Amino acid sequence: MFSPEGPTLRELAVQALSSVEHGYDLLAPKFDHTPFRTSDPILDAVASALGPLGPFDDGLDLCCGTGAGLEVLDRVCRESVTGIDISVGMLEVARRRVGEGRRAGGPRVALVRGDARALPFASAPSVASAFDLVVSFGAFGHFLPGELPGLFTQVHSVLRPGGRFAFPVAAPARPGTRAYWTLLGFDAVMKVRNAVWRPPFVMYYRAFRLADVRRELTRGGFDVETRALPEFGRRPDGSPRCRMVVATRTPAGSSVSS
After folding, report:
1. CA nearest 51: which of 30, 77, 31?
2. Mind listing the pLDDT tens digit of every residue in the chain (258 residues)?
3. How many CB atoms lie within 10 A of CB 76?
4. Which of the two ends of the chain, N or C, has the fewest CB atoms closer than 10 A to its terminal CB?
């Protein structure tokens, strides 16, 4: 699962016994050499799916980590690209990857340290305070189900009317498969770890369920649709192996549909 440049088992254990923020600070220099980084095929598929929905002016990568998703925004946004993450270490790697400021022929890039549950853009005049597009890749396992309404409210607050919130969602593992038992076991271990050790490290793979996400996004003022990512094919029952959720901020006072 890990390349020789990736973290050792000891380093992973130290990270797992830290807080989310400090754990990612520790992991940041080697994060891109782990399977936790969103793969290039997923990033490319999302960029391709977003193309027909644009063009977009200002984009935000929520929980941007080392900046892989910023390269998606760079392909579909004309004016500015902003990444926000709680980990200083991850932002340092992102800064080396994509840089900051205006680049010739490309959008302006800014990186901001902050918590997705309390977005700081109203007090950060040097970056865009409203966006046409918000994306996120692989970060939702760090939020408990009860935190989703507040998280989606934050996203809604920084999107312009008609703006899009887009992110990929893989089909859940089939019960009884190896992947199912692996994810079930991982989540069980994390629940035990958080019950007996402080600070908690919130990371649950099976807590982010599409039906719950659709419901909370709709309640939060979004029109929600899903689009199959054809690059990943379909399962034997015909359902997509991977979808992109597209949640559009509805104008104030309009009705909300699902």
Report:
1. 77
2. 466 777 888 888 888 888 899 999 999 999 988 888 999 999 999 999 999 998 899 999 999 999 999 999 999 999 999 999 999 999 999 999 888 776 667 899 999 999 999 999 865 555 677 899 999 998 999 999 999 999 999 999 999 999 999 999 999 999 999 999 999 999 999 999 999 999 988 888 888 899 999 999 999 999 999 999 999 999 999 999 999 999 999 876 443 333
3. 23
4. N
The two structure tokens encoding residue 5:
């440049």
CA 58 to CA 66: how far, in whole Å?
Answer: 19
Give the Cα separation of 235 and 239 in Å (integer).
5
Hey, what are 215's tokens?
């419901």
Two structure tokens written together for 61: 């990568």
State how far Cα 114 lies from the chain centre: 14
